[in-house]
Every structure is written in C-alpha cells, then in structure tokens.
Amino acid sequence: MVGFRASVLTSSGAALLCLVSRCLAIPVVSDATTTFTPPAASAPPQVSHTDVTSHGPYTGPQPTTTGALSTNVLAPSIPALPPGPNAYSYKRTGKLHAPEPAPYTPSGGDGTNGSAPVYRPLSDFDYESIALALYQEWIELDLFHWGLATFSVEEFEKAGLTAEDRFLIEFMADQEVGHATLLTNILGAQAPKQCTYNYPVSNVREYIDFCQKLTRFGESGVYGFLNHLNAHDVGQLLLQSISTEARQQMIFRQFEGLFPMPVWFEVGVPQSWAWSLLAPYISSCPENQTRLIWENYPEVFILNQPNPARIDGSDVRNETTGGYTNTLSTKDVSPEDDCLNSDEVGVNCSPGITRNRSQPLSYPGRQVFLKWDDPGKPIGPNNSYITSTSVKTPSFAAWVNQLNVTYTPLEDVSDNTAWTIQPNTSTYAGDPAVNGTMFLVLTDLDLYVTPFNISQMNPHVYGVALYQSG
Ligand SMILES: *[C@@H]1O[C@H](CO)[C@@H](O)[C@H](O)[C@H]1NC(C)=O
Ligand SMILES: *[C@@H]1O[C@H](CO)[C@@H](O)[C@H](O)[C@H]1NC(C)=O
Ligand SMILES: *[C@@H]1O[C@H](CO)[C@@H](O)[C@H](O)[C@H]1NC(C)=O
Ligand SMILES: *[C@@H]1O[C@H](CO)[C@@H](O)[C@H](O)[C@H]1NC(C)=O
Ligand SMILES: *[C@@H]1O[C@H](CO)[C@@H](O)[C@H](O)[C@H]1NC(C)=O
Ligand SMILES: *[C@@H]1O[C@H](CO)[C@@H](O)[C@H](O)[C@H]1NC(C)=O
Ligand SMILES: *[C@@H]1O[C@H](CO)[C@@H](O)[C@H](O)[C@H]1NC(C)=O
Ligand SMILES: *[C@@H]1O[C@H](CO)[C@@H](O)[C@H](O)[C@H]1NC(C)=O
Ligand SMILES: *[C@@H]1O[C@H](CO)[C@@H](O)[C@H](O)[C@H]1NC(C)=O
C-alpha cells in the first residue's frame, strides 16, 4: 500500500483516507455526509483601520489648506451637444450584423477583446470618483461599529432590534472593511485614509434613520458615475461592492419599519451631491490626506421633513437633527404619536421585512417648507472645505428620484426660505416617481436632464438635501 498514511475519522464521522499528497473521503456506512478539510487558501490582507474612531465636531487648529482640489478650469460649464455620431447607427432588427469573434459571442462590447483587465484608474474622473467612494466606505465602517458601541442592548431592544439584527449591523461593518480595502488597492499609495466623524443622532432610531439616509447617497452617488468611468474594469469591481451597499440601504429601511423598496428604479446622482451630503459628518482626516475635487453646496433644511417615527409622518414641523441628510429627531414625538407603540397593521413601524404605511409619509400636493444657508462656510474634514454655489437665488426645487428630475417652482422666496409643492410625476404608469429616500435639490433653472447627463445640473444647483418621501 504505497503512499498510505492514515485513516482518520472527521467530526462528522466520515473517514478520510490520506495518501501522500491528498485525502480521499470514504463515508462511514451509517453516515452519508462527506467532509473534507480543504487547505486554507491565503487571503489578501485588510487595509489598516480602526473599528471606532474618536467622535465629535472638529475643534483643532485652522486648516492650512482649504477648498476643493483644483487645477486650470477651462470653462464654467460643459455645453450641451446633440447625440454622438454613432448613437443611431446600430439597427435594432434582432438579427446579427457582424461576424462572431468566437462561438456564442456577439461582436462588440467593451473589454471583450481578450486584453487583460488592469484594475487602475485611467483618468482624474476615475480617481476622484473612486476616492469619493472610498471616503464613503470609511464613514460607513465607522458608523456601523459606532452605533453598536454607543447604544446599549436595552436601547436597541426598545427600538425592536434583536441580537441577530445587531449581528447583521456588525456584518455590514465587516463588509465595509472589504470595500475600503478594494478601493484602497485600486487607488494606490495616496488613497484617502480613514478619518474621524461626527453623527447627528442621539438614540437608536435616529441612528438607524441616519444609516438609512447615508447609505442612500452612498449608493446613488456611485450609480451616478459608475457608467461614466473610463476604467470599465474598475467599474466592474465597484458594481460588485455597491450592490452590497444597496442591500444595506434596504435593510436599514426595514429596521426602521419603512416599506423596503417603494420605487421601481434606484436613482443615480452626481459626485458633488454625495460629497455635499457626506462631508459635514467628517470631523478630521489624517495629515496629508488626499483631497477631493467635488463641490460642497450650502446646507438645505426641509422644515417639514416627514418623520418615519410618527404615526402621521407628514404632520411635522422642523423635526430633524439638522440640514443635509435631514435625519429624523424623536425628541418631540409623544408616545401616542409614536408608530412603534401601535399594534395596528399599517400603523405599527417596528422592524420588519415590510410594513404598510396606511398614512403615507408624503403625498403629491404636499406643501414643503424650505430654508437654506449662505455659501462660504467651512465644512468637512478639519473644516478645510468651503461651501459654494454658482447660483445667487434658487427658483426651483428639483425632485430627483428613479429615472426622473421634476422641477417645481419655489414660492415666497425670501430671506433664504421658500415653499414648494410635492409633484405628481410617474416614472412609468403605476410608478409614482416621488417615493422613498430621495434627493431634493434647489436650482436656478429647470434644466432638462436624463439619468446619464444629470451632472449637467451642477452649475445650476444651490444646495442638496435628502427628502424622506416614503
Ligand atoms: C440631457 O440629455 C437629454 C437626452 O437624453 C437631452 O435632451 C438634454 O438636452 C440633455 N441636457 C443637457 C443639459 O445636456
Ligand atoms: C482591446 O480593448 C482594449 C480596451 O478594452 C484596448 O485598449 C486594446 O487596444 C484593444 N486591443 C486590441 C488588440 O484591439
Ligand atoms: C486635521 O486635524 C487633525 C487634528 O488636529 C490633525 O492631526 C491632522 O493633521 C489634520 N489634517 C489635515 C489634513 O490637516
Ligand atoms: C506629510 O507630508 C510631508 C511632506 O511631504 C512629510 O514630511 C510628512 O512626513 C508627511 N506626514 C505623514 C504623516 O505622512
Ligand atoms: C429647528 O429647531 C431647532 C430646535 O429644535 C433649532 O435649533 C433650529 O434652528 C431649527 N431649524 C430651522 C431651520 O428652523
Ligand atoms: C398594504 O397596502 C396595500 C396598498 O395600499 C393594500 O393593497 C394592502 O391591502 C395592504 N395590506 C395590509 C395588510 O394592510
Ligand atoms: C410610496 O409607496 C408606498 C408603497 O407602495 C405607498 O404606500 C405610499 O403611498 C407611496 N408614497 C408616495 C408618496 O407615493
Ligand atoms: C396623480 O396623477 C395620477 C395620474 O397620473 C392621478 O391618477 C392621481 O389622482 C394624481 N394624484 C394626485 C394626488 O393628484
Ligand atoms: C420619467 O422618466 C421616464 C424614463 O426615462 C420618462 O420616460 C418619463 O417621460 C419621465 N417622466 C417625466 C414626467 O419627466
């Protein structure tokens, strides 16, 4: 019996017949399971990180560098052009128009000619976009751990979140380690590092609402640039991380007792919108941190932001913990108005796979009151970015969700306040466009844009907020 070494019984009762180089499993007659112990393949290391950083607003010295990264600016905006020369040339006949490069392989596609993918940025656009996504992964990693470390088991249980739910949040934090590692490897030595943060929440429900909102602009911020990347191979990796983020967003909605996905399409938004919403929650970043090119718009407050903690979520006045994300505050919600205290189906909002809200958080025709800040304020890491806009006074609210941008006029514009009316737009018949956690943007022009040229709005944007429409 050349090569025979030993026959051992594994924990499941299967015998392993081990030869010189490998083991063969021989099931024990009474037990059908076969269990191998495969050699552990070595895994690439995680990027260096801290599970929970220090927290609170930035109190350090005045930054020496301020403002977004910039170089020569060639023009104030990108002119709109007609479609490219080949946009209409492919004939949509359902037939093949060119020889197949290989069996079962249609001609065309990008990255299909056999050249080896190299997962590196190919342009400033790529680098700045991935660096923004990395800033987002870092805050999520910290935020998910921070909530678990900050609130007690009793506080989580009071919000209806069990030990299993908390483990899911812990697992989400681990996912962020992976995402931060991936993007750091793509960006190389100057990749932005983990920072310290400051969150606008003081209890579990505010925390879950903030997570739900933060992951919304994390997800949508990437959808906005993914298909514009020069490096499609990098886009492939990013897609595979952002689809995980999308699941996190939905899970936080479920933790909040919201209808998990009240839309048919998830929206994509420009990088500067995501950066404007993210930067206020970063207190400080390490010395020599790589800076970003993106704009920080002034703060916009939705004074009657719908409050998902209420039975009648739309009946509110200034119940947020601040502008930008406009996260819910539970401070003034009395026990009888609190949907967590109801057992009624359609009213109860404890964590669940799905919840009906028989009284919707918002509705077409709702009057929405707005207030905004002036530009020129220090914000973001080390207060080293400055809010700005090229707009003097906004005239429109843009409701940006699903595949649509719908403008409504701002009324009674004075003293940095105005109101507007929630529109009644459908993406397709049967799919009201305004629902879920979406973007409400103040502009000076009702510029027509579609999902792939939405960043053309930027020179006309005054400020960006998240609206909790459902
Ligand atoms: C955006 O794209 C649409 C076509 O999808 C076009 O009609 C519109 O003019 C474009 N907007 C700008 C500002 O480029
Ligand atoms: C194959 O496609 C890549 C882009 O994906 C391009 O850079 C390369 O030049 C192409 N190679 C050949 C042989 O056509
Ligand atoms: C930001 O502030 C911290 C704390 O004062 C400091 O250690 C760090 O070097 C600063 N970062 C930058 C990029 O200036
Ligand atoms: C920051 O950059 C300066 C100048 O390149 C260098 O002297 C210093 O060591 C760097 N600091 C860190 C923490 O990397
Ligand atoms: C909202 O209310 C808080 C007090 O709860 C107040 O500090 C803040 O200024 C108000 N915000 C606006 C925009 O009115
Ligand atoms: C949930 O809401 C839908 C749509 O309004 C309604 O058709 C359905 O009956 C509701 N289900 C329950 C259990 O309330
Ligand atoms: C959002 O969708 C939910 C679920 O279909 C629905 O109950 C609610 O009325 C919708 N809200 C708005 C603002 O359309
Ligand atoms: C919104 O428009 C649809 C038709 O597209 C109509 O059926 C519905 O009644 C309208 N809702 C409101 C509140 O006006
Ligand atoms: C919403 O987007 C869809 C898909 O692009 C488009 O067909 C529809 O016309 C848009 N609706 C409005 C009101 O702009």
TrEMBL record:
Origin superkingdom: Eukaryota
* The keyword Cell inner membrane is annotated on this UniProt entry: no
Question: One Pfam match, by short name?
Answer: Ferritin_2
Could you list this entry's UniProt keywords, alphabetically sorted. Signal
Q: Where is the composition biased (Low complexity)?
A: 56-67
Residues of the signal peptide: 1-25
UniProt cross-references to InterPro entries, sorted A to Z? Rds1 (IPR039254)
Spans annotated as Disordered: 38-68
What's the protein called, per UniProt? Ferritin-like domain-containing protein
In its UniProt entry, the species of origin is given as Cercophora scortea
Please spell out the taxonomic lineage of the organism that makes this protein: Eukaryota, Fungi, Dikarya, Ascomycota, Pezizomycotina
